[in-house]
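Lab notebook page, bench 4
Experiment: in silico fold of construct C2
Operator: M.H.
Input chain length: 159 residues
Purpose: comparison with the prior construct
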Amino acid sequence: MKNPLIAIMMGSKNDHSIMKGAAEILDEFEIGYESVVLSAHRAPDETLRYIENAKSKGIEVIIAGAGGAAHLPGMAAAKTSLPVIGVPINASPLNGLDALLSIVQMPSGIPVATVGINNSKNAALLAIRILSGKYSDIQKKLDKFIDNQRQKILDTKLD
């Protein structure tokens, strides 16, 4: 696989079933990524070290999935200038609303782009859009992807 441009972070192995959607999209676009399980609460030092070293490893965008209190995306945004995309995960009795509100309500000066609950595929597509301004090959693949989506709608036939 190519050198990773995107980091996919998640707070536990249980989040992988949701976050693998991002990996599938990145595989489709042939964009290098690395997936890691690190917890803002259970392994804070290691998580901070990973975030602080991401840029020097060539990472250009971080996708961070989290449920419940959902601190991982905010922690990432607080420790790097890289774009961070938060994926709220339905991992509590509140059906992911707690995670959604936690991620979107970041304090001024610490932005985290946020997608819908459990929607890691859109997180990957947003990361791809961010990278497309720098990489023409990614832009071409994105243009083709968007055109294919449009064509599927136009080709839809109702019985």
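Observations: Residues 90 and 96 are 4 Å apart (CA to CA). Strands lie at 6-10, 33-37, 61-67, 84-89, 113-114.
Next step: discuss at group meeting.
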